[in-house]
Protein 1
Amino acid sequence: MKNSNLFYCQKIISMYIKNANLNLTINKSRKLIITNYFRLVLFLVFSIYITNTATAQCTYSICVTNAGTFGTGTVNVKVNGTPVAGATSLTDGCVDFTVTDGATILITYTTSGFGLNCYYIVTSGAGGAGSVVYTSGYPGGISTAPPASKTITVATPCAVITPTNFGPLQAPCTNLDFENGFTGWYGTTGTVSIGTAVATSPIYVPVTLNTTTGTQFIVNTTGTDTYGGFPKVYPSGGTKSVRLGTDVTGNNGTSLEQYFSVTSANSSFTYNYALVLQAGVHGDNEQPFFKAEFYDENGATISCGDYLVVAPGSGFTQCSSPTDVYYKGWTTVTVDLSANIGSNVHVKFTVGSCAQTAHMGYAYLDCSCSAFVDLNNQTICAGQSATLTAPVGAASYTWSPAGIPGGNTNTITVSPVTTSTYSCAMTTIGTSICNNTLNATVTVNSNPILTVSNDGPICGGQTLNLNIAQSGYTSYSWTGPDNFTSALQNPTIPNSTNANSGTYNVTATLGTCTATGSTDVTIGAGPIVNPIPNITVCNGETIATSAFGSPSAGATFDWTNSNTAIIPSSNGTGNIPSFTAVNNGTIPISTTISVTASLSGCTGLPTTYTITINPDLVVDLGQDVSICPNTSTQLSASPNNASSYTWTSNPASIISSIYNPTVTPTATTTYSIKVDNNGCTGTDDIIVTIRPLPSISAGNDVSICKNTSTQLGASGGSTYTWTSTPASVVP
């Protein structure tokens, strides 16, 4: 449809939309019901629709270079037979012209001499930019002049770059970091031609298409660059990076491209590059170079993504040897593709050596993608800080309000007192400078307040209750004495002791904000009872009053008794009065008295003591005994395990402290003993009688004849034992 048709259709639409409602048929296939609300919208939509289906118009350019000394070449350009203004006698420089789908470009060439080293290049963009459509020859010793006539047929549509130029469409973020080699990438190698006199770089002419092999495509996994000393693999990336180009001189060129879909998830394209370029004594149109280009799916340049650097380049470091080599370490560039979400983008990286063949150039590359988003709004609490981070890879960052520390970097840390808005103006890295401004609001919430209390002071053994008056917090964290911790709002400590006294701290969280509080707890340990010695008495003795005391003045006392056979009451208050010990048994009896002191409602730990009543002590020395003069006998007292034994005698003759001494009286003697067993004593006596010696008579002496007998007779004894000298008698 021609432009006149467009005007005609617009006129028809303008006429019919005057009605409130309209049935309109276009091409007998599209029926629309239009209301007043959509009149202007419909007009614009149809204008765009018809324009987009009209014959496309594109801008091409022709750049002519006369670099030789063998005459001057002149170029004449016609499009569909019509001469191009400014290109009827073009000898140097670039001229832009308009073409349409399928148009015919006729280029004629004449020369005043040999015409050597004269050439021209036709590109699909203004000023020699865009893709190379045709080049007539190459610089540096080519002896063939451009053809006298060249016919070029423009593609249909003219502005569409077919995917075969840079490989098939790739999914978002396909192998951008080259961890899978060159999968998803489209490479070319070719030659570098001298650009026009006003060109900012040489012109790369691809020769070998769809290749990623050879020395101009290297996947690096380790090592450092020979000239720059920087790592060959991007330090903040994966395990691999690639090198494009070669360190061998010549007019070599290399490109690497990818055609991919853009979504919100990959609308931020980041490429990291490092360069080594050898500078010659040439203009920019001949020097080694590195170029990054971005195109939309219609082939139009995404100007904010363009980047071009030629040797020696700004921001490069000069090698000490050779001094004509310059390098630039790893540098990050981020391109915002948000405007291309839902469509496709073509990215192309080109590196070329010197067009005069004497100097080399190569680049290292590593890419990534992410969502290009605004600064994240943040919510903080009073006294806290927020960190705002803009995307890396911009030429400059300017944060506002002014005066923020680090305000010229991509990351700042702020600590606003009240809710504040911050913005970051980013300047892109590239040939065409673009500006982006990102914004974020930091909301400052007041810290919540805690009212913390406890039910103290309390006494030991009681339950301690900790309390927070405010509720609704998301979490609690208590700490306190005796390694206390709790995550409850109102924790308790049963059977508390003095060890639980002290300060309890709590932190409560509400969202991102925290509040702290504390409470001091006093737990009375209770007064103590002064030590009470154990009491041991004997039956019938008087036990003195048990008067209880405490270091705490004013304390009162309670006691319990475990044996009512000794003290009739099982418990009582105050002191225990004096009483007479009674134990009519044969074994000791005892009781345990437990005493507690109380003061101001708190009762201390009990103190205990015992009262033991021993029975009367029965001492027994046994029956009286009689012995012969000058003999001994052993006395024995019972009990034999008492504490002490004291012996006396009449007449006095014994000194002993054991229960069973041996005595040798010279006369009948009475022995007395006093036995002490833990304070209880007993006595007994025993008489040891000395019997007199018997008066023995064997009668008068007698004489007898040999071999005769006589009877002897004795008197005065009870038993008799005979002996003879010489021995002859048998009793």
Protein 2
Amino acid sequence: LACKSGSPATSNTVTMTVNPNVPVSVSISPSGNNICEGTSVTFTPAATNGGTPSYQWFKNSVAVGTGPTYTYIPANGDQVYVVMTSSLACKSGSPATSNTVTMTVNPNVPVSVTISPSENNVCEGTSVTFTPAATNGGTPSYQWFKNSETVGTGSTYTYTPVNNDQVYVVMTSSLSCKSGSPATSNTVTMTVNPNLPVSVSISPSDNNVCDGTSVTFTSAETNGGTPSYQWFKNSVAVGTGPSYTYVPANGDQVYVVMTSSLTCKTGSPATSNTVTITVNPNLPVSVSISPSENNICEGTSVTFTPAATNGGTPSYQWFKNSVAVGTGSTYTYVPFDGDQINVVMTSSLLCKTGSPATSNTIIMAINPLLSVSISVSPSANPVIAGTSVIFNAIPVNGGINPAYQWKINGLNAGSSAPTFSYIPMNNDEITCELTSDLVCTSGNPATSAVVTMIVDPLQLLVSPLTQTMTFEAGVALFNVTSNSSWTVVSDQTWCTVAPTGSGNATMSVNYEANLSGASRIAHINVEVAGLTPIELILTQDAATSKTLNLTVLLEGLFNGTTMNKAQDIAGDKFSGSVADQITVELHNSTSPYALAGGPYTVNVNTDGTASLTIPGILNASYYLVVKHRNSIETWNASPVSFSGAGISYNFSSSASQAMGNNLKQVAGKYVIYSGDVNQDGVINESDISSVDAAAISFANGYLVTDLNGDGIVDADDLILMDNNSAMFIVKVTP
């Protein structure tokens, strides 16, 4: 153009992509080759550079199908291949033809089997082997059947059949191409014949013969067929044939061995019984008799038995007192005393002497029957209820060891003893049955007459039922009316009684003196077993009283004139004029100086006076003993008489008022030593330790360690304690 710009002009640049041509190929493989006739086979291709290929299959050069596989049932020699067309753009060798597969197809051969036994029509117990004949079996496997039941595997089958067993085999061929496998054989039905037991016995024409007698032995066989024989005499072969004849000697033993001609048999050859021949000399005949018993009871039946010598099968004629009385092998009757029995025996032996033979004569001894009886005697009748009664049996003709059966109201009781004891009830009926151990008895066992027991009811009466006694010791009497034994129990130890009694009696109840100052009651039970107990009440009055007046000063509380009042934390421990409390005891005047009265707790006043009431029964002479919570125990010098209604004693007037002058003089008075804190009868370091410990702890109140009674344990108490401890103060007793 005339008018332009950009000319000449340069275009865009195109870069070329050139793909190589890829080689195309294909191969095929069958699902199986060298196969059996009728087997379906699938052919599968393996394509190289096929993309999404298309296929054309050929069989024997004839197109037969398309698709990725080809399946059919081939014939032997068929040739199969495929032509594959690749879908790729750049390729070479497309369409590609595969390798050709030539098919090998084997025909199916027919399979069969037959069996045969090693033998048939056999004897029972015979082992038979069955053998198969296989056609096209390859290396076959077998399953054997007997009467339709599986019995074994393997190339043969061996067993012991029974009659009519049916045997067959199923054979499975190991070949690849076959028909009719597994194959079932013919069935063999077995014929099994029983084994017949073979036996033989022999019998002699005669036995038990006389010397010189000829004897023929004849055989009797079972299942012998046409048998053969071998005879033996004394174990030595002596002849053949169905019989054997000879002249035997005594004791010869003859038997035969028979061999059966049958095929199926057991026990052949068979040995017969052995016949021992008895050859008799001319034997002497004799007979003796013996009774079943002699020296018997009247009425007892006796059997006489003969013992025959050389009697054979004898015949007998029995005689009683020389009169024929019976025949037979025994004779039985009821004899009288002195009867004479014998027998005449005739021997059946052919060879004998002395027949008929007469036996010895038996003279019978008969004992009369003794009547058995029993009576019963009770130890008491009538009796009181609850009484044990002993019953004694009195036997008549009971023998040495009789047996007893006691009965109460017809029921067995007790043991087999001639005595029996028990506690009867009213109208119980007692009998005893005696069984005698004598040989000749009548009425055995015997029952006694009935003993009817009379049992009286229990009785218990006591009078009087209550009594009131004085305070002194004594005995109370009660009248007991009873027909039995009885027991007595008191519920108080001060009231005692004999624990048992019996029948009508006067019962004595012993009671001690009542020193308590109050009346008291004892309950006494009288009892008969089976009855309601009777309760008796014994009331004992309180003793009359008397007054004991004492004057006692306690060292710790004494201020030189009177006694200070004992203090507690809150002030005076006791009200009024009471300074403190003491304990008073009365002891007997003689060794061992036992406690006779008290102990009595008594208030002692600030002036030292104390008064107490004591039982009036205390009227002898006694030692007075004064005890205080932290003072030494102090006895008066000598026994004081208590015969009067009022007794006075002053411990503070003189040291001699206490035994062993065991008092301390203070301001013209005599006081009881203080300081026995632990009441062991001595004032010593032990007491000091107790007071010291209380002082250190500032103890206060009504305390045993507070000797001066001011309510505080302090140095004042320790000073008093130390002084008395240094003096070795101890209690003084008789």
Protein 3
Amino acid sequence: DGSEADVTARTVFTVAPPGAAVVTADGVVTLAGGLAAGTQVVVTGAYTELGTTKTGTATLRVKAATFIGLSIDPPKISLARGQSVTARVFAHFANALVEDVSTAAALVWTMSPAGALAQSGRVFTVPAKAQYGGVEVTARLVRDGDERQVVMRLHIRQEGSMVNPGDFDESLLVDFNDLSYFIGHYGETSASPRWDSRCDFDGNNVIDLADAGSFVGRYGTSYAPTRAGIGEAAAVASTRGDPGQARVWLAGPTAPVQVGEVFELLVYAQENDPLAHGFRGGPLTVLFDPERVAYAGDFAPAEVLESPYLLFQEGRLLDDRIEELCGMTVLDGYGDGEPVLYARLTFTARQAGDLNFSLAPSSSGLILTPPAGKLTLTATDFVGLTLRAEPVLDPNDAVHMYAGLAAGWNLVGIPLTPRLQNAWTDRNGNPLSGLKFFRYDQVAKTYVPMAGEALEAGLAYWLLLDAQPANGVVLHGAIPCAVNAPGPGWSLYGHTQSDGGGCRGGDQVRHFFRWNSQNGQFDHCDSAGLALGEGAWHYQEE
């Protein structure tokens, strides 16, 4: 007749390629992890009515995470004639993913002044007769129609001039005096009256956390008067940037936590560089699901970061992450080939099920002692953690899990006396407050809606489900001590957990008719054929 009806719950879904997605009974499609960008996933739905089957398809294309920007390493460098630098470019995405795109075919390099440097791929060399001064090298990348760019600032210096990053007092040693000087300029911009561009290691005109990481990564460096910083730069270039140079991971409770429980996550770090002598900190991101967990209490970096990471403490608590959690130290020996505790975080479990926590890079790389210094973003392995949360059970509660429930009408028996609050949950303990129950009113000869907590043990009720429950249906309550036997005539009946599998009411002739949702009819059965949790129409002769 031209009308439309929602038949999602009665539709059979298939996916091609197999395993590329999961479709729930209510039609929610979840793509599998690890699918390459551009992969096409075809979801087919088949619906059968009165012997006729109709199908429909939907084609999905896997998109990469939203491309939000580029960063470059190094962002700023000073070279003499004949020296070269190998640039690395990283793409940043909205889900905190970082990808090394240094060799991507779509990456385009330009420089200003044009031709000021010799270029071979991502290696830039200062010519023997280059003019002294500044050169800007720009990298551009287009992803999914979005173009982003980043600039490396290079200064061509005169041969023999001393350029020792971090050595502000020119003592040839990056020491406490230089740390005090840097702290005095931390947070300044190029508009500040005391601006010193030597503290702006990445050349972005603000002395910020990234610059602090660059300085701390050089703390302790000793410069020889004759090498003009060249030897130190070469040592850094030979060791920094390889995957696995550092590892950061989460540790937490080994046993499941309960919903409402406050638990602690520990952030550990370790450096594995053969030339470094310890982990000095740096920024990272902690991601979590705000529907399942919440941060417990007020968040303050100074409260969560562990000693000795007491310098340049930062961190912001957002809805679904702790962003740029950072502390630094200039001490050696911490996390050198063995774990060091970096931070303690406290969360509250809000829902039962898997609690997933991820670690990801932040705005700049983590920091080791010289000569490794500040690492590239992809040189650290970040390892998350999955915990399990379980519902809080009343020790006086009994439970019954229903099997075989389907979308549409289900005739269910009530084997327990429902508890007063959250009597109906899924397998994970999450409340199912939207269940629709109906009892038969013999006087009015009609069905009346009922609250799930008001149902009576030993009776049966119709349960209307909009979709097949993905995580099951569980009844919580008490085992009834005594339940009256059904009287003569017709009534809705269900066994209780105190019946011992038999029918209440003695030896009278009884008939049971249980609902068959497959064919939409009632099947005759005896008491023994009626499972706990099944409902049936019961008839007793007068």
Protein 4
Amino acid sequence: MTDRETRRFSGPAAARAARALRRLQRDGVARVVDVRRDGNAVEVTIAPPAGSRLSRLAPVEARKLLRDLCGELAAAHAAGWVHGRLAPEGVVATGRGFAVRDLAFAQAEARVAGDAPRDEREDVRGVGAVVYWALTGEAPLRAPPEALPAALRPLVLRCLHDDPGRRFGTLDEILVALGAPAAARRPRRTRWLVAAAALVAVGGAGVAATVMRGSRPAAPRAAAPAPSPAPDPELRPVLAVGDLGDRGLSERVVAGLIDEERVEVTRAARGASFVLTGRIIDGGDRLEISLVDARRRALALASRVRRDADEVLGAVRSALALPPGRPVADVTTRSPEAWRAYVDGLEALERGETVAAARSFRAAAADPGFAAPRLRLARLVGGAERDALVAEVAPLAVRRRAAAELRAVAARSPAEEVAALEALRAGWPHDATVGADLARAYRAARRPSDCAAAAERAGLRAELAWCRLEAGDGDGALAAAAGDAALVGDIALALGRYGVAREAFRGDAARLALVAFHQQGRCRVLPPERDDETVARVRALLAYACGERAPTAAGRAARIQAILAGAEPGPLDGLPLLEPPVLFDVALARLGAGDAAGAAAACAALAPEATLAAYCRGRVAEAGGDAAAATREYRAFLDRWADADPDNRWWRDARRRLTLLRRQ
């Protein structure tokens, strides 16, 4: 490889690009030797690192590649430069490791063209793509992810996530996950000077001075000053508790800090001021933890502690100059079995398995002093069980966060729940769980626009899709559902786009049977070939609608069957939580059984903006003899479904009914 390499770039922003590249040359992070401008062109000369082109690597070498790329590009980011176009051909293997050779050329190409500034997370994806290629010889996802070694697979795939918000936020976070924070390569005193500067924003100059005097921050020996007012929740630092190698331990750390007024603790790193991560060492007895100041890209804490939540909390509180807290067992539970069941419930909720989650929360609630599982379970159930849980948890909800959650759970109307959750979000504005609950509450309160906004902030694909649908944005709903075939099919079914629904449900006999029922009125009771909630729900609905006796099914399907059979007190209790197609089926089934009042109640449970609602209201009005109202609703329905499939059963039926009403 030659000692010098020159390239010429032409574009409308050559003058501005030349000035930027001269700054890059002064910063010394891209090996720029010379920058010359010639009219609308810029010539850039670099001294590329000596080495060979990147080739396939063993896992150990790929790990070093990941560390070297993150370290070099993190230094460029600290100086304000983002590569944005990293590829295998832009990386070389040197005698000491790996290096980026074309940062200056990437800057020249982008700036001469006048491209917008690039986000640092583009380099996170670029690093992941280069490592993927080095391990598999293929571009990302052309080779199956299973081709990646297990030790590196989660890191590389997270770098490549389609949603930038779910990638690593910075390259330093990748280094921390690898056990090699970028700041750790600086001289020891420099590292603590940086950490001290980071801590000034949290604990003041006194804490910073304490940090600089020793290897780790110590508690001030002087009397503490008078407590200052609690900071504005929107302005206080956000601490994200990431992967500590033990989900139960991570949740205990969150629980130990959830009521802290000087810092907001969350489980998501996006937008966080500090990120806490760790890994299990010494055969499982100890943890190596790192606390990164994401705003300054500095290491605020690096320590080895026992695998104990109180030890982790003590180290974090000391690093952030927070007052001592109560033992975490005092604010959660002293029962390992109850805690394990609670964490199992949280994991089941994340997978969407509400029946399994409720079972785990009930097991955790065997500890009579444990409030958290009761609060979670109360959000999953209704009626008398919910009221009993609220009564049980009331004397336990003495902490600020638990009391705020209890007000939301105990709400007697959607409007009350929205008000309670909005107050909860005001205290914990970055908590994704609160944002998710608020999105669902907005939906139940018939506020689809607010629901869509909250769901988008919380990253809830399903809620966002349904709320867009209920706001009248069918195309937006399908766009939000993209990537989840079952959700796409449900949305398409609600829109009457049966071709899209059939394609999405390909291979799913239960859902295809539901499409056939909606489209053509064909009745087919499904055999009990599988026992999951979706099949059982569809089987029960089809059996009822077709005049058959619905079989007993577990979980949610059993609840729907009880509602359909009218065997449950308050037969529509819980219906607002069901998807529009299910509510629509309930209404039609009740009409077919001659239960006009039940059909009207099911239609009323549909959001007024839902696509199916107008047809449903028209059928109810027609059954009640109100021809004017039925005509109005059928017209609205036909207008809304103008882009539905030509063979749409309900669209054809609405036209037929409207014609008959006009003849009367």
